[in-house]
């Protein structure tokens, strides 16, 4: 039977690389309250943007899609789901909102995980919601020739309920003892949860929702304002590679948590860096909104899309951004790259200043 021993620190994790990551995250957490107090109006806008990004990214990782416009409408509850993908997106929105609003009152245990999974499928007629898997499952990968091979065989359906109970108990015992850093414990919990693969469907999305829940409960609230799910989506190959590396020997209790813990802590550190940069960028009171768009091109190396600018400056309306881009194009300060939805903008390296009259 798989054992979950979280009370002992794995010696492999006591390496400078992991300790440095954890230490840097702690530093950002220490500044977190200052960030939160800095610009309440901007943080509120960042919160709404992050909800949309998180809901979209976590579902896209699993091959669940809708348009950007529909995604925004679904997350803001301005539209009802029209197909299966949108039903699953709406369900994710509900669980994400539950965690955002109630994380201090949610106890991690098997019955609660089942309730959250039920809510994940609350818009979908599936009977799988809120039930552990009723048949054994495997994690497969498909090569470029279309050949399938089993990458990992999770615990059987029979073993799953007890394993989830044991996993939650092991996590609580270690957290309550306080000897091992919560960041290490949360990363290990996520790896073990994914290796159990307790549901017929929705395992990846549940793992990311539980990640946010556990981080928030330990005071790491960056995921409210910066989409951790989108950072995982942008590093999806590393996510799957480290998941595979850390699952080797898992059934025999001989797996190495190091690759996955390193990856997860790196993602969280990137989220905090983005949060810090975003707050510093929007904290410039003396600069007008159009000037801030211009300033962004001075600081950014490479192309920027209209959506990226809106995400960085959630307090600036799309209309204002479009006007600023139009003015910068006329001035010759930036250049347009591509057309349609793929349109991006880049600073004109040949710009020599406004022409004199």
According to CATH, the fold-level topology of the largest domain is Fic-like fold
CATH architecture of the largest domain: Orthogonal Bundle
What is the average per-residue confidence, as pLDDT, rounded to a whole number?
93
Number of discrete helical segments:
14
Question: In the residues, how many domains can be counted?
Answer: 2
Portion of residues within helices? 55-70%
DSSP E strands, number: 4
The succession of helices and strands, N to C, reads HHHHHEEHHHHHHHHHEE
CATH class division of the largest domain: Mainly Alpha
The coarse overall form would be: globular
- Range of strand content: under 5%
What structural class do you assign from the helix and strand content?
mainly alpha
Please identify which CATH superfamily of the largest domain we are dealing with. Answer: Fido-like domain
GO molecular function: ATP binding
Active site: 197
Organism: Anaerotalea alkaliphila
Binding site for ATP: 201-208, 239-240, 253
């Amino acid at each position: 039977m798989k054992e979950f021993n979280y009370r002992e620190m794995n010696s492999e994790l006591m390496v400078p690389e992991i300790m440095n990551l954890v230490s840097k995250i702690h530093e950002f957490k220490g500044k977190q309250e200052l960030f939160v107090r800095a610009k309440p109006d901007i943080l509120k806008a960042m919160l709404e943007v992050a909800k949309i990004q998180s809901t979209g990214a976590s579902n896209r990782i699993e091959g669940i899609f809708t348009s950007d416009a529909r995604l925004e409408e679904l997350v803001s509850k301005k539209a009802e789901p029209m197909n299966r993908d949108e039903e699953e997106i709406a369900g994710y929105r509900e669980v994400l909102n539950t965690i955002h609003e109630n994380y201090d009152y949610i106890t991690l245990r098997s019955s609660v995980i089942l309730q959250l999974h039920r809510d994940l499928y609350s818009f979908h007629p599936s009977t799988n919601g809120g039930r552990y898997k009723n048949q054994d499952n495997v994690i497969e990968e498909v090569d470029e020739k279309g050949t399938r091979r089993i990458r990992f065989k999770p615990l059987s359906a029979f073993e799953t309920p007890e394993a989830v109970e044991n996993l939650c108990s092991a996590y609580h015992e270690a957290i309550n003892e306080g000897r091992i850093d919560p960041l290490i414990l949360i990363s290990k919990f996520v790896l073990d949860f994914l290796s159990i693969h307790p549901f017929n469907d929705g395992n990846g999305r549940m793992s990311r929702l539980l990640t946010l829940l556990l981080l928030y409960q330990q005071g790491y609230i960056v995921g409210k304002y910066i989409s951790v799910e989108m950072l995982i989506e942008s590093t999806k190959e590393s996510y799957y590679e480290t998941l595979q590396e850390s699952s080797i020997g898992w059934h025999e209790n001989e797996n190495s948590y190091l690759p996955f813990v390193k990856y997860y802590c790196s993602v969280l550190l990137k989220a905090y860096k983005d949060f810090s940069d975003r707050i510093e960028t929007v904290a410039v009171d003396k600069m007008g909104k159009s000037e801030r768009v211009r300033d962004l091109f001075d600081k950014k190396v490479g192309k920027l899309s209209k959506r990226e600018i809106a995400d960085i400056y959630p307090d600036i309306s799309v209309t204002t951004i479009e006007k600023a881009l139009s003015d910068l194009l006329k001035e010759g300060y930036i250049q347009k790259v591509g057309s349609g939805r793929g349109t991006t903008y880049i600073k004109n390296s040949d710009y020599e200043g406004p022409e004199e009259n």
